[in-house]
Amino acid sequence: GVPTTYANLGMSFQYLTCLHFAVSNTVQGSASIDPVNSLERWFTVCCSVVGFVIASMLVSSLSSWLVQMQMLKQEKVATMATLRRFLRENAVCTSLANRIDQHVLARISVSPRLQEAQVDALEFL
Questions:
Q1: How far is the C-alpha of 104 from the C-alpha of 72, rounded, in Å?
Q2: pLDDT tens digits, residue range 35-51?
């Protein structure tokens, strides 16, 4: 018999094999699944792409959350820096300035309760 090589296989199978190789190396790092026909290869490529999309969405959500937390922290740091500058410029004694600093820091950390007017979805009830 004639040995089976990729050159002996159909053109669509050759392109599909290249697509599978490219997607699996991009997503998984290597092609650990060895499909034997075009249908299995398509299924493998589709599963890899879906896995890549889900992983990308997870990373995107996590990144967004971390940026949001960092922005909130920067806002708090800027507020406290402005307060400290004000206390220093107005020659407030150190012990009083420390107590004010601690009090404001404690109050900033507690978010106020929401009022009905702040919840837009309630108007749909």
A1: 16
A2: 777 787 788 778 778 87
